[in-house]
Amino acid sequence: MMKVNDHTTLQVWIAQLRERGHIASKQRILIMQALFQQREIADMEDFWIALRQQHPVSWATFYNFIRLALKENWIKKETGTSNYTRYQILID
Asked: What is the DSSP letter of 83?
């Protein structure tokens, strides 16, 4: 469950999405909520599968939003010494 401050921050993030000329579809907002609650993602595919079990979000929609979030600096991709890439949520 999201706290009041978390909800306000999420609303700011959604407003930024709209201000930058992007559509704030139901699926994008669901992805944003899930990312915001997680704060750090170790495996995007596993994250999408878990999200998909709860909400009807296609891989294409998810992948395109992740690309957009990287471009807009809402998330950061961290590649370490292992073969895995971690993603950190930058929206506070």
From this structure: S
**pLDDT confidence tier of residue 1, bands split at 50, 70 and 90:** very low
Q: In the beta sheet, which residues pair with residue 75? A: 89
| 3-class secondary-structure state, position 77 | strand
Q: Which amino acid is at 64?
A: N
Q: Is the pTM of this model over 0.90?
A: no
What are phi and psi for residue 34, nearest 5 degrees?
A: -65, -40
Angstrom distance (rounded) from CA 19 to CA 13: 10
Please state, in angstroms and rounded to a whole number, the distance separating the CA atoms of residues 56 and 72. Answer: 24
Mean pLDDT, the chain, rounded, equals 83
Return the sign of the alpha-carbon dihedral for residues 6, 54, 42, 72: negative
